Amino acid sequence: MSDYFNNKRIWITGASSGIGEALANAFAEHGAHLILSARNEQELNRVAAGCAEAGAGSVIVQPLDLSQHDTIPGIAENILKRVGKIDILVNNGGVSQRALTKDTSLEVDKKIMNINFFGTVALTKSVLPNMLTHQLGHIVTITSLTGKFGSPLRSSYAASKHALHGFFDSLRAELGNTPIKVTIVCPGFIRTNVSLNALTGDGARQNKMDDATSKGMAPELLAQKILRAIESGKEEIYPGGKEVLAVYLKRFFPAYFSRLIKKAKVT
After folding, report:
1. pLDDT digits (tens, 9 = 90+) for 172-213
2. Which CATH homologous superfamily contains domain 9-263?
3. Which of 37, 42, 43, 181 is most buried by a 10 A CB count?
4. What CA–CA distance (Å, rounded) separates 183 from 179?
């Protein structure tokens, strides 16, 4: 890969583990300046130390709770004062779900939407004016294959990811006459703690590793695919294993897909 990311100012949410941590390390190896955000400051500091060792130009740890929408504009303003501008915003923070619709409380539905959708939108809106002023920037949003189709046990999660697709597809169209780019990343099963942290119907963590997740793509490999997609300016990618085929089954053979997803092993 080229030195495309050298000295780029990159803000990553959900950076304390999993995909976010893998991305932080990958960008660090290319000499990027990083802003790392998540709720767990201790884990962010651990990731930051690794990024510094890997060659990051600089690392700022900025705790951020995506569910606290009112705090986001102020946090973004503070970061922009420190770094001047953001070259790449990576919206990666979020929470998954493992519960049937009938068993999921409305409060859990709201919590998932507040974090995954409204939190991501709030941060994007807080950074976008600066990108427009400088006429540069790349907004990368990590969604999921369930942003392209729904599956059992993921009703609110899939809804939040579908909402992100609608929002960022619209934003990309609005930015068509500017240099600002929008990339949507729709991973399949990735080997992270996403299923351990997934919310059950009453809001408790599942605390269980799904078989499909444990056998998924390594987050380090996904990070490399994402970096290549950003550098080449791709609008949307579907990294994963054979589960990616479901995107095309849904598009070209919807009736067959409908029968298949009812029986699919999604945990």
Report:
1. 999 999 999 999 999 999 999 999 999 999 999 999 888 989
2. NAD(P)-binding Rossmann-like Domain (3.40.50.720)
3. 37
4. 13
For the cut 70, the answer to whether the pLDDT of residue 1 exceeds it is no
Any idea where the domains of the chain sit in the sequence?
9-263
- Two tokens at 246? 């479901």
pTM: 0.96
Active site residue 4: no
Give DSSP secondary structure letters for 116-134.
IIIIHHHHHHHHHHHHHHH
Task: List beta partners, residue 90.
Answer: 12, 140
Q: Is 152 exposed, middle or buried (CB count within 10 Å of its CB: 0-12, 13-18, 19+)?
A: middle
What does the pLDDT look like over 228-242, one tens digit per residue?
999 999 999 999 999
Active-site annotation holder among 4, 157, 238, 248: 157
The label of the residue with tokens 């605390």 reads 207
**76-114 residue pLDDT tens:** 999 999 999 999 999 999 999 999 999 999 999 999 999
